[in-house]
Structure formats: structure tokens, C-alpha cells
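Progress against Task 2.4 (sequence-to-structure conversion) is shown through the following example record, which the project officer requested during the mid-term review.
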Amino acid sequence: MSIDTKLITQLREATGAGIGDCKEALEEAGSDLDKAVEILRKKGAVKAAKKSERATSEGVISFTKKGNKVAVAGLACETDFVSRNEDFIKTVDEFADKLMEIGEKDFKDWADEKIKNELIVKIGENLKLVASDIIEGDVVGVYLHSNKKVASVVVLSGGDEELAVDLAMQVTAMSPKYIKPEDVTSEEIEKEKEIYREQLKAEGKPEEMWEKIIPGKLNKYYQEVCLIKQAYIKEDKKSVEQLLKEKGENIEVVEFKRYQI
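C-alpha cells generated for the chain above:
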């Protein structure tokens, strides 16, 4: 059977397999491209490595929640066109479901196999698993931005899920690094102080005033990087810390995680 060279080229581009393997697969498949891909997969001739160095700056994050447990999966791709495709979004939803079902350890092997031997060939782009977490606690809230590229999970001790979701939205929007000032490392604090000293020197402030000014600058820094010190995005006249106190006694943020593609 004579095989169109364009089909051979197309199959090579999709699979990374050699010319001979592609020609044989197309002959066996009667020039059916999809069947040829399946044949090459069964022979182990599909090579995902061809695309493995291409940049993956787009993608989708998805989550599945059951009770006080959340599974978060993120799959990066090359183009916004693919990330907006309904089948791709559905695939990432299935990843989150599978993660919840089989757990983190087994999921990574399953995901690697599916990405390399099925999805890269089917979609035609480099794909990378960029998130695979299971998070649980007393009260868990999760927020996924409308673009499906940024998501956050917050775990509370006390409070309710509505509050946890609001704080997950806060984390998504404001990207804090820490929960509270006490979590900031001493090395980071000293680095900030040194920056402030250089700034004050450049401004011509008297050196004996520096140590009186620096605490105020540190407080502003904490308002940027510490979740509980940030202005609450839904009511910016109050801090997250004030919000927690209003919602009830002994409510604490135990953990948060932020994901972004």
C-alpha cells in the first residue's frame, strides 16, 4: 500500500516515532491516523520526549472536595487555545477526581503514564503535572479563579466553610507568603531591616532615628506578606485578623496553599 508522505509526517509530528514505524503503522491501520497512533502506542514507539522541552506557561487547575478533604490537580500546557478547550478542562477535572480516589503516591505514577502515553500524543503539546495535593483539616475552603489558572485552599481551626472559602479567595487575590508575623524568618526580617536602613540613609534621615522608624516599616511589610495582617478584600477597612475575631473565638488559620499556572 502506498502511504501519503503527508500522513507519515503528521504522524511523526504527533508521536515522535521514526519514519519506518510510522509507515508500518499507517499501512496496518489502512491510513487511519488515529488507529496508527494506537498501534504505535501498543508497540511503545510513541515518544513524548520530543515535546518535553517546550515551555508550558498555560494550563488549568481543578479540585474535588469531599467533606473536609480537597484534592487539587493542575496540568500545564503550551497554549491558551488548549487550556480553554472543554475536553482539556474535563481531563483536569478527571485528574482531581482520580487524585482523591487513589491518593497522592499512586496518582503521580498514574498521571505521568497518562500524560506521556496518551495526552501528549492526543493533544499535540507538551504537558506537565504542576499540582497534585490532598489537603484536609477541621474546616477546609477552596477557591478557584474564573480563569482556572489560580486557586487556593485554606484550612481553619474553628469557623465554617463559608469563612474558609472567603479566605481562600483572599489568598488567591493577595498572595500572602505567611499566616502571621511570627512565621516570617529572622533572616528575612534582618534583610528587610537592612533595606530600610539603606533607604533611610539615602533619604538623609538621622541615624539615631532609624530604629524608631523601622518598626513601622516592618508593620507595613507584614500587612503585605502575612495573611492575617492583610486588609480583607471584601471589606478593606478591616484586617483578616479582625474578621477572624468577629466571626468567633479561637478561630485560627492552620494552613493555606496557593496554586498558579
